[in-house]
Design brief:
The complex is a heterodimer of chains A (about 280) and B (about 300). By secondary structure, chain A is mostly helical. In chain A, about 70% of the residues lie in helices and about 0% in strands. Chain B is globular, with a radius of gyration of 27 Å. Chain B has helices spanning about 1-10, 20-50, 70-75, 80-110, 115-125, 130-140, 145-155, 170-195, 200-205, 210-240, 245-250, 260-270, 275-300, and strands at about 55, 60-65. The chains are: A mainly alpha (about 280), B mainly alpha (about 300).
């Protein structure tokens, strides 16, 4: 904004930002370093910023105490299917709401928007009962079907609709004159242009699925079927006390891959989120 | 009649007018989402209401129509004031702290400084850290003998037992949640700040307006649509807080951190009172609906500028 900033102002701004950063960066640092500390060092005073001794066996114990590889796979494949499914459902619906005029479209859009008003927590009791009747308790179906088709995907549909509305229509109209069908126009012309919105939808959906906690603990009961957030809370000794270093090792394994992908692709992440229909 | 059959015979495609084709295509495109909303949102919403009129204990396998009894029980529930207070404190504290911190960081990140992208990345990074992993780390840091009190002790301050003290437990949960997700609002604010035309500031400077006055009279009004939109998302999101409470305090100490969703979970899935759980769901639904509606009304009054 200001063209010239004095060195003093700059230093103050950098200093302020560095202090503000502490609670954002320090926990992650603490998680990674403490995961290789022996349990006796973990509450050492004064606290160690780097481990004095490295105890890599905590990572081995993560896999011994729980079927952690299986749980990792569960979370990963569920998040992948949910992300892909939501992208398909939301881009189709978002495109139709933006482009195809037909009687009833506005009324249907209002009905779909109701999903934004009704968080999954409101309907968790009947959803449990429905999936119970379908024999889908302790399966991954509820964790896939509800996010892809239910309330969580409405937000994505809204983002896609806003994006398609802002997209120039001339190209598609030319294609219609040439006699191309709606689906071909959608797939060949509109969708390739919608990559920014699609990537925002993909990021949101993946994180939402990866973080899901209430639904797994309601629907899933055996360790082999657990997802990661649920599994992370289960690293306790026989007395229910937390096994901190092992829990932190498991937390590191859960958090670090996503964090690394984010740092590599941070530009697409941040700009994808900033430049979509979120602006209203 | 002969004329009509003549047209049909001559042009078999006439049935598929553009209107009809759009109707079919539109319906098919929307069908997966619409069927999903009907099956996983609207029918369950109806069922929640239906269940709330019943006494339903899953363990005892009893399902009995009791009319408004659950609602009377809700109003007489001695825990209700505590639950609503906890929910209110959490949502209000979260929104205020989240929005002001997001705005502060966004203003800082909007300065032309070398290496600003690195700062942006770091401020945003907790958003992509798994929620439960983040919460577990903070639970570790907030233990009585944990990292935060250790750091305080080196400064000669005796820290409280953050998660076991009724005065600090809720505050701790709010702080953990704000640092986790403030990056999202920060990015939205940053995008809004960058959309404010630079000429306005130049004109204001020529007129001798102070930096604070520029912020108050130019920046705030122009980004008010974003502030409103993000506050809606943040408030509705704050009503859904669950994992943080399950990991950090399990609703304690006492009931000081038992927010509505956590209470709902306890009643329905720990104590198996499905009917009462459904009644609490209805209350949650009404609160979300009223808040959203109120904010959309507010939008008409306080938002100065929209494109």
């Amino acid at each position: 904004m200001k063209i010239d900033m004095s060195i003093r102002t700059r230093t103050m701004l950098y200093g302020l930002m560095c202090v503000l950063l502490i609670p954002f960066v320090f926990p992650t640092w603490w998680m990674v370093t403490s995961s290789v500390k022996p349990i006796s060092d973990i509450f050492a005073f004064p606290p160690d910023f780097l481990p004095r001794t490295y105890e890599w066996s905590t990572y081995q114990r993560v896999f011994e105490l729980q079927p952690f590889a299986q749980q990792y796979w569960n979370s990963g494949y569920i998040a992948a299917i949910v992300t892909a499914g939501t992208m398909i459902v939301s881009s189709l619906a978002g495109y139709a709401f933006a482009r195809i005029r037909f009687p009833g479209a506005d009324a249907i859009f209002m009905v779909v928007l109701l999903g934004l008003l009704i968080p999954a927590e409101v309907t968790i009791v009947p959803l449990f009962q429905m999936f119970n009747q379908w024999g889908m308790i302790n399966t991954h179906w509820p964790l896939i079907l509800v996010p892809v088709f239910g309330a969580p995907s409405v937000f994505s549909t809204f983002i896609m609709r806003q994006f398609f509305i802002a997209l120039p229509i001339e190209l598609e109209e030319a294609a219609r004159v040439d006699g191309l069908g709606r689906f071909t126009i959608f797939r060949k012309i509109a969708l390739p242009l919608a990559k920014p919105a699609l990537s925002a939808v993909a990021i949101f959906t993946f994180l939402h699925s990866w973080n899901l906690f209430l639904e797994p603990i309601v629907f899933i009961s055996t360790p082999e079927m657990f997802t990661l957030p649920q599994a992370l809370t289960q690293f306790t000794d026989a007395y229910g006390g937390a096994m901190w270093n092992i829990q932190l090792a498991a937390a590191t394994l859960t958090a670090l891959p996503v964090l690394i992908v984010f740092i590599v692709a941070q530009k697409q992440f941040v700009e994808g989120l900033a430049h979509t229909g979120l602006k209203g | 009649m002969s004329q009509a059959s003549h047209i049909v015979a001559k042009s078999p495609r006439a049935f598929w007018t553009i209107k009809r084709r759009d109707q079919v295509a539109g319906t098919l495109f929307i069908a997966p989402q619409l069927i999903g909303i009907i099956v996983f949102v609207l029918i369950p919403l109806g069922l929640v209401f239906w269940y709330s009129l019943h006494e339903w204990n899953v363990l005892a396998n009893s399902f009995k129509f009791v009319g408004s009894a659950n609602y009377k029980m809700l109003l007489a529930d001695p825990a209700l004031p505590e639950v609503l207070t906890a929910t209110g404190i959490f949502s209000a504290g979260l929104v205020i702290f989240n929005m002001s911190l997001a705005l502060l960081i966004a203003v800082l990140l909007n300065q032309k400084l070398w290496g600003i992208v690195v700062f942006r990345t770091l401020f945003f990074s907790p958003v992509v850290v798994s929620l439960v992993a983040w919460t577990i780390v903070w639970s570790f840091l907030l233990q009585n003998n944990g990292g935060i009190n250790a750091v305080l002790q080196t400064m000669g301050i005796e820290g409280p037992n953050w998660l076991r003290n009724p005065g600090t437990a809720m505050f701790s949960i709010i702080v953990v949640q704000v640092f986790k997700n403030v990056g999202l609002n920060m990015i939205l604010f940053l995008a809004a700040l960058q959309g404010v035309p630079k000429e306005l500031y130049e004109a204001a400077r020529v007129d001798g307006a102070s930096a604070f006055k520029q912020f108050r009279r130019i920046t705030l009004p122009l980004i008010s649509p974003t502030i409103l939109l993000t506050s809606i998302i943040t408030i509705v999101g704050s009503l859904q807080v669950f994992a943080q409470i399950a990991v950090l305090t399990q609703g304690g100490p006492g009931m000081s951190t038992t927010v509505l969703v956590y209470y709902l979970y306890q009643q329905a899935f720990q104590f198996h009172f499905f009917g009462y759980g459904a009644t609490l769901s209805i209350m949650l639904f009404i609160i979300v609906a009223v808040l959203t509606f109120a904010q959309w009304q507010l939008r008409k009054r306080i938002v100065f500028y929209e494109n």
